[in-house]
Structure formats: C-alpha cells, structure tokens
Amino acid sequence: MGYEVVDGRDVSPAEGRPCELRRLTAGTDLSTLAVNRYRADPGEKIPLKYHYHDEQEEAFYVLSGTLVVETPDGEYTVESGSLFAVTPESPHRAHNPADADAAVEVLAMGAPADEGNVYPYDPDDGGS
A Gene Ontology molecular-function term (predicted)? Predict the structure, then answer.
C-alpha cells in the first residue's frame, strides 16, 4: 500500500511556464495520473500552446475565477465550481482573459500522465 500527503504550498512552481504551475504529483509514486494546480493572472494563458493529446484525457476544475477555453468548436466559459473535460485528440487552449477582474485558479488532472504526446494545433490551417 502507498499513501502520501502533498502540501501544494511545498511544491515549487515549474519554470518556463506562462503562468504559475505546481505539479502536485511530482515526487509521488503516481505514474498514470497528472495533477497540476495553475494560477493565471488576467491576460495569462495556461498551456504553452494551442494543443491536443493523442491519448491523454484532461479535466480542468475551476477553483476560483473564470477560465476561458478555446476549441475548434468555439469558446467555452468555465465558472468557479465547474469542470471542463477534454477527450483525446481534442484541441484546446485555456487562458484568463485580459479583462478579467481576478486571477483564475484551476486544478487540472490528466491520464495517462505522459507529457510527451502533446501536439501543436494551428486553428488557421485546420490543425496541422
């Protein structure tokens, strides 16, 4: 059996990200689930780029503020207390709008945890 308590305040933010990212599963024995906490100020984006995963499912639970997610189907507004789910091969890009009143805090979960299968998506040329 294996159990662990991870205090998110003890996890250092990842470097080179467009907003604050704390990888809550880093250092744990979890190998198939990624759990990340994001905090994006107004105007900041959450992922590095518009992208999709070939296998990973993702769920974004908004802890506070409002998250906006761009997709080829349109834009989704996700309020605090709501979950936005993404199936594999579904392009998306999340951000906190520049005109937002406050930061947005999001708990993002993905499985499998492999970050290597992330592909850029260009909406201007149909995705390639």
Answer: metal ion binding
Tens digit of each residue's pLDDT (9 = 90 or more) over 87-106: 999 999 999 999 999 999 99
* Torsion sign over Cα 64, 46, 125, 91: negative
pLDDT in tens, 50-97: 999 999 999 999 999 999 999 999 999 999 999 999 999 999 999 999
What is the spatial distance between Cα 124 and Cα 35, in angstroms, rounded to a whole number? 31
Q: Cβ atoms within 10 A of the Cβ of 50, count? A: 18
Question: Measuring CA to CA, how many Å separate 111 from each of 20, 54, 60, 88, 118?
Answer: 21, 11, 12, 10, 13
Identify the CA nearest to 67 among candidates 34, 22, 107, 35: 107
CA atoms within 13 A on the CB side of 78: 27
Cα separation, 34 vs 8, in Å, equals: 14
Domains and CATH numbers, the chain: 8-125 (2.60.120.10)
Residue 49 and residue 31 in contact, taking contact as beta carbons nearer than 8 Å: no
